[in-house]
Amino acid sequence: MTAASSLAAELERALHYPLADALPPRGGAIAVAPGVKWLRMALPFTLDHINLWLLRDRIDGREGWTVVDTCIDHPQARADWEQVFAAELEGLPVLRVIVTHMHPDHVGLAHWLCERWDAPLWMSATDYQAARYACQVVNSFGGDRLADYFHSHGMTDAGDLEQIRNRKSYYSSLVPALPPSFARLMDCMSLTIGGQAWRCIAGYGHAPEHMALYCEALNVLISGDMVLPRISTNVSVYEMEPEADSLTLFLDSLERFLPLPDDVLVLPSHGKPFTGLHTRLRQLREHHRERLAEVMDAACAAPVCAYDVLPVLFKRPLDLHQTTFALGEAVAHLHCLWHDGQLRRTRDAQGIWRFAPV
Ligand SMILES: [Zn+2]
């Protein structure tokens, strides 16, 4: 076990897992609260699973289920859903599909679920539009603009840049389509699901406009990717919004969960359901505070570009795919210090952004 993973394990033990090590079987569910079922589907990535939720519902007099998040569009997920339809819906239909945000593991099968059940998609407008755009462009998360952007943050290996220039359709391979219409989720909006009020909590910095859902009566928070028990949420800056301060947005968004009770049952998109929300929020703030201090130390020693701080933030070797995500996170940390007035940036003769203390 590495130092980083033993620290992660130690932090994880500070939380409480009411279901212990129980995991839903493939194509099956575990009830986690009245009318709330937990599904877990495999992902072919380092992050090897996603949690999805079934909420017992009644809309316009019809009994059925609201689905929260969908998995990527691949044959295994469709097969898993078929088993869920047969075994877990109690003979009732899916009435509505809610998606927390635009990332492929969350929205990939929304088009299929909505069409199959003639059910509406509910999602924030920002993420719906971003997902529709991303699944239609030829080279989302690749192409000349992304390669130029990575170069401006210190990626100079010609072979790596060439691979990024040529990367095609990563997003649309996982999210081939979006439903042609949607219902808009907005911050603080209250949804009635199964006779209970669920409140939307918007979050920024991880996705354009992520929606978590909180039910006070059940004392349950569907946290999506905003609050995860073990891993820290990916917070990145990319070429479409190159000046963004995603990390400040993310840290500010975490504050919005503080009014919730500490014993709320948190249902995260990755990892196990847990209690100890306030402990976890504290851990996440502390984690980023430490990373920012390390980045600041590096910049004080000598001006740095984002590529230079990869080994500061990630104490393990990264392949090119991981480097592209890590570089986005490195820019987010530098930009947090830059927007805060602690660092200034200058562009050197090679066109690379270098950050130094003010
Ligand atoms: Zn996500």
Overall description:
Helices cover 37% and strands 22% of the residues. By secondary structure, it is of the alpha/beta class. Helix 6 (144-152) packs antiparallel against helix 7 and helix 10 (277-301) packs across helix 12. The model has no long low-confidence stretch (mean pLDDT 95). The chain is globular and about 65 Å long. 44% of the residues are buried. Residues 101, 103, 206-207, 225 line the site of zinc ion. Zinc ion binds next to loops.
Question: Beta-sheet strand percentage?
Answer: 15-25%
Structural class, by secondary structure, is: alpha/beta
Strand order of the largest sheet: 1-2-3-4-5-6-7
Described by the principal axes of the CA atoms, the overall outline is: globular
The poorly predicted ranges are none
The major sheet is characterized as: 7 strands, mixed
Order of helices and strands: HEEEEHEHHEHHHHEEEEEHEHHHEE
Radius of gyration: 21 Å
Can you count the beta strands?
A: 14
Cofactors and ligands: zinc ion
Q: What is the mean predicted local confidence, pLDDT? A: 95
Distance between the ends: 39 Å
**Considering DSSP H and I runs of 4 or more, what fraction of the residues is helical?**
25-40%
Tally of helical runs: 12
Key features of this structure:
seven-stranded mixed beta sheet, binds zinc ion, 37% helix, 358 residues, alpha/beta, single chain, five-stranded mixed beta sheet
